[in-house]
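[job 4471] stage=fold_predict status=RUNNING
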Amino acid sequence: MNLSNETTPQCFSINNPPFIYNHTIASSYFSIVFSPLGLTFNLIAFVVLLKSFQRTHSRSRSSFLVFLCGLVVTDFMGLLVTGIIVITFHFTQFNWRRLDPHCHFCNFMGMSMVFYGLCPLLLGATMAVERFVGINRPFARSTSMPKSRAVSIVLMVWAVAGCISLLPLVGVGSYHMQIPGSWCFFNISSKASDMVFCLLFSLVGLLSIAVSFLLNTVSVVTLVKVCCGQDGTQRRRDYEVEMMVQLIWIMMIATICWCPLLVFIAQTVLSESPLQVRNLLLFIRFATWNQILDPWVYILFRRAVLKRLYPSWDWSRGSIRTLYPASFVGTIRRFTRSSLGDDVLGGGERRVSRNPVI
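[job 4471] inference complete, writing structure tokens
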């Protein structure tokens, strides 16, 4: 017999286990099979990135690898934390009410779902901004971003996602047990506080994808124009091409995997329609594939692989500044030298004026 709502913890007030839901989409095989696979893929990707990090001598490339390492760690920990809970439930069928009478465990899993869901999207947008500045404003920075700053930015992204995941604990939204009883997530409803958090989660995710799409498109167009321009002295740069290819695939995977869930959540709360459990589970499966497919971007779309796919390209090393026509770079250098010459000449004239010959 279920307890009354007055004595039922908040996380069990809407969906109170045990549940009888035998739809195929709720099968335990997905979690049991794909969680270990995703963890393995992310470990392989992490090793590949560490080796690339040790070999690279480019500061911009090092900063980009820091972002990629942050993304791999986030995907790995997301699969590990949520996968352990879900797989343990399917094997043991533990009673959530007895194990977690005060909802601490359920709140932790709900926070994990939000945190590890938003982090990849925010990191993708952050990397898009970094590459946009590096490719479209190569002369705006005297030096590339140091690794310490890249690490600080990754930590800041994690902090933002963590703060958002804490909002339901202070009354903005709420975490609840979800059917079939193996996981917890924020309540998707038209109730005022729940609606605010649902829309915040959806808008942050969709805005991150939109920023990534816009900036990556501009960066790719700029890179193609410079690489394929009429000036025959310009050269393709392997590092910039590799980073942009990886970033484009990360954006495409995130868009395909996350947009259905984000749009579904916003549409459900705005239309005040009842939650479709089957669609929620289906779109959660889609979102999980983001953490499984991301590692293959780092494994497959590396410079060594790209060289084999496009051996006719002139894979030379250097910074993005050498992507620009030699005439343009020469103009910048002449302008800089003339400016320095004017300053020196002006200073000399001023010194002469201070000591006139009598």
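[job 4471] summary: The first strand starts at residue 175 and ends at 178.
[job 4471] exit 0
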